[in-house]
Design a protein that fits this description.
Oligomer: single chain
Number of strands: 10
Mean pLDDT: 87
Largest sheet: 3 strands, mixed
Strand order of the largest sheet: 2-3-10
Number of domains: 1
Number of helices: 14
Structural class: mainly alpha
Helix content: 55-70%
């Protein structure tokens, strides 16, 4: 199964402003990190090219041409839906490498508790992105040496929440066209609605917006097969979210029951890993429409991986219920959600959504 690329939020503006603080840069790893993010964003912005001009080049690779045109069409469609498209994805930037950045998540081995990084404006985030791939690997090794479960994964796209005119990056162009369109809608959805310190809510909302908008987009183009694929992928995400909820519940019970007993925790994690493997193969796999689950290798429980997977699949059934309540209309759903969540922060986002829906 292909792992969904995370949409990483970076405070790049502050990074640029702080880049000149020489003494702090030498003394503080956090200032060095934010400064590096600012410099990388500056480099990306300097390398942007208008997609409209690229499409006029007769020497442009035909496959890239088709994908760039699809992106422009998708972002224009996002604007018709009321998404805050702005100038996002009207330009293209070749980052010059296969991996844009690495995203680090961490958790104690006896608790599904995300290691939290704090940033100005965007608040608390359960991950940290590294443009410097070596620095990301070093940070992961340091946390692992301190006993944490760690998960370091590549990311091909991110949103600056409207601070900059986000270009389409070369790392995000690959993959099937449905995922490409969904990525466009997903990232623009972050410009449309962002709740401070509510990463699981923001990413799960953007999943709904990404796939349901992609479904509407392809249907409007008369591409019923791609529209169905987008809808099926969203329904698969709901199924996977329910699986991860069940796995998390088993682990939460284990960790509460075995607190302080390392041997019991280790044994329980092995049992949970065996259950998860069997569940994916026998129960979850047959329900999936776009993902394929075959015979899976044995894999130990890693709390950081589970937390990272759930960020994009948190209570997705609520978002689908909201969508259906608004006439299966993604434009109406997103507009109403943005109104509902005005001024919300952190856990309040899900509380408002739950209160706005009728009880099951």
């Amino acid at each position: 199964m292909r792992v969904r690329r995370p949409a990483l939020v970076l405070l790049l503006l502050v990074g640029i402003l702080m880049a000149g603080y020489g003494t702090a840069y030498v003394a503080s790893p956090e200032v060095r990190f934010v400064s590096r993010a600012g410099m990388e964003e500056s480099r990306i912005l300097q390398g942007r090219r208008p997609i409209s001009k690229m499409l006029k080049d007769p020497k442009l690779d035909p496959d890239l041409r088709a994908r760039l045109q699809l992106v422009l069409d998708a972002r224009d469609f996002a604007a018709t839906l009321g998404f805050a498209a702005g100038k996002t994805y009207t330009q293209y930037a070749d980052v010059g490498r296969d991996t844009l950045l690495l995203v680090l998540s961490a958790s104690p081995p006896d608790c599904l508790c995300a290691y939290i990084w704090k940033y100005p404006i965007v608040g608390r985030l359960p991950y940290k992105g590294y443009f410097d791939l070596g620095a990301g690997r070093k940070a992961a090794a340091e946390l692992e040496a301190r006993g944490y479960d760690v998960y370091l994964r590549p990311s091909a796209a991110f949103s600056t929440l409207g601070w900059f005119q986000d270009p389409l990056l070369s790392t995000a162009v690959e993959g099937d066209t449905v995922e490409l369109a969904a990525t466009v809608f997903h990232e623009i959805a972050h410009n449309t609605l962002y709740v401070k310190s509510a990463t699981p809510f923001n990413e799960s909302f953007a999943q709904l917006a990404g796939y349901r908008a992609a479904e509407a987009f392809f249907r409007a183009r008369g591409d019923s097969a791609s529209a169905a694929h987008a809808a099926d992928r969203w329904l698969d995400e709901i199924v996977l979210g329910e699986f991860y909820d069940s796995l998390a519940a088993r682990l939460d019970t284990l960790y509460q029951r075995s607190r302080g007993d390392t041997a019991a925790v280790d044994a329980g994690r092995l049992d949970a890993a065996r259950w998860a493997r069997q569940e994916l193969e026998d129960s979850v796999g047959p329900k999936l429409r776009t993902y394929h689950v075959g015979r899976l290798p044995e894999r130990p429980v890693n709390n950081a991986r589970i937390i990272a997977a759930r960020i994009y699949r948190t209570r997705l059934a609520l978002f689908e219920q909201w969508y259906q309540q608004h006439g299966a209309d993604i434009a109406a759903s997103v507009a109403a959600m943005a109104q509902l969540e005005k001024g919300a922060e952190a856990d309040e986002a899900f509380e408002r959504l739950e209160q706005a829906l009728p009880a099951p």
